Amino acid sequence: MVSFYIRNKKSKTGSIRCCVQPKGQRRFSFTVANSKIDISEWGMGQMKTGKGKQANSQIQNRLNRLRDLTATFYSLYYQSFSTYPTQEVYLEFLGSNMTNEEYFEKPNKVKLLDLVERITLRRITGKELNKGKEFSHSTIQSYNSLILSLKKFQEIKGKKHYYLEEWLKMDIIEEYEHFLTEDRQMSLNTIHNRLKVLKAFLQIGVNEGLIPFNPFKKFKKVLYTEDSDVVVFTKQELNDLEELDFSDNPYYDRIRDQYLLYLWSGVRKSDLKNLVKVINPTTKVYTFRAEKTGETCQVPAFETLRRLGEKYDYNFPDPYSDTIILEEIKNICQLIPSMRITVEKKSTKGGKKVREYKKKYQMIVIHTARRTLATLLVDAGLPYHQVMKITGHKKLTTLQKYIKSEADVDGMLAVGNGLLR
Fold this sequence. Notes:
17 helices
């Protein structure tokens, strides 16, 4: 595993090189510190020793200690982490001048959940920021979801806790993934989210020096997602929604109007308050910065937005919570005949393909509004880069995932029927 050599034996003097051949890895070499010798004193892989060569014996003893140190380091590292150290890790160890006992001295073990809960609390309270800003509510929610699933995983496994170092093995990560799939019957995209957040916290463990590597990166763990079936409003359905008469139901009237703001601005949920603050009767565009990306959004003063501004005298009421909007907008959309049609929804849940049939209004979510505006604008011929100015997307590929165009049936029929003439 460890050998020594002289690179250029034709010179009168030279430094001793150490060659390390780790198991299952490429070998590497480095110059032994303070090892310049007379080449004539070098034999077959070691110093010439014997009577009158006490200086050579001292050098050889150093090489022997280095060989023993290296062999022991690799053995203890594998026992601790079930993998061999990289060249960088080994050279860092040598540079530290630590003994193996010092390097492998067991620190107080850190529990994974303790780490996750500690970091989560710091981010909730604003003691730790994300590029100078507080972490978003959705990000904190994803942390809490991870905490809940890890607690349930421990309960199922009959363990009080898992230490951080236990997650260095892919076996435990795959067991957790299997638990999310089979026991919790989660969708593929939800599992992706849990594993992505777990990966992020393990990286924090690496950054804090608690574990030597992130297993997701080291073992190149692939996290899978899938495009979920979603619906968007047609142009006619947009008009139908706006024309619904709720003069006798002020509650539904406000719910519908709030959703129209979503539909005609394409804003994320976190940006609705930013939008209504800049809606005014004098400009052609409403400009604000998106909370999530920091990008400037430029929402044109569409007629519906102007009408809503006039309706509320540009003094919009405080928005309802997303939970209320999500529940009530489905009830409102039942009143539109075309949204009572049955649509197919396919997804992967519990590791199996699931096919469901639902009414279109049942598949409406807050994000449906954002997808709708992006889709209709692109279908109408507005260039992608212009749509991105409205939606505040940073990447074209992300915007393209939003586009859910339906087939132009009238156009298809016109072309097809023309072929028969």
